[in-house]
Model the fold of this input.
Amino acid sequence: MNMTTPTISRRSALKALGVATLASVAGQLLLATRAKAALEPAGQGLKDFLAVSTTLTGKNDLNPTLALALYKAMQQTQPELDGALLKLKTALAQDTVLAGGDKTAFADEQKAEHALSQAILQGWYLGTVGKGKKAVCVTYVDALSNRAVADTLVPPSYSYGPCGAWQVKP
Done:
């Protein structure tokens, strides 16, 4: 009995790989286009949020979709967010106002700007906006603190181990 196994020619394999690559690239372009389109309606407030976030975090590759989600969540907790962002952006642009160029140190008369900067950093690094019962979790894995350890810890978190493991005394 002669059993033959079907063989895939090299040409067929390369065609399949090419199709898969093309589909992947097209999908990424579609996602990028949708993300950009989602950012457009938010206007200048979102642009200020991204500029301030880039300055505070020191990261130029912030996720625009996450930025939009954080911005919208912050709009719910802070009524005059756009005006406050403009003031914070101006304060950050003036290094002389800040203590020694530290982007998180503000003068005593800039308490509102300091509070907003801390809220923005909390959103990016912890993934939550607001405090207490009004806190909103916007992201977990994509939070900057978890991205920093994602190559080492699974799941990416500073609370490594099973749920509740931190409660047990060593």
Summary: The radius of gyration is 23 Å.
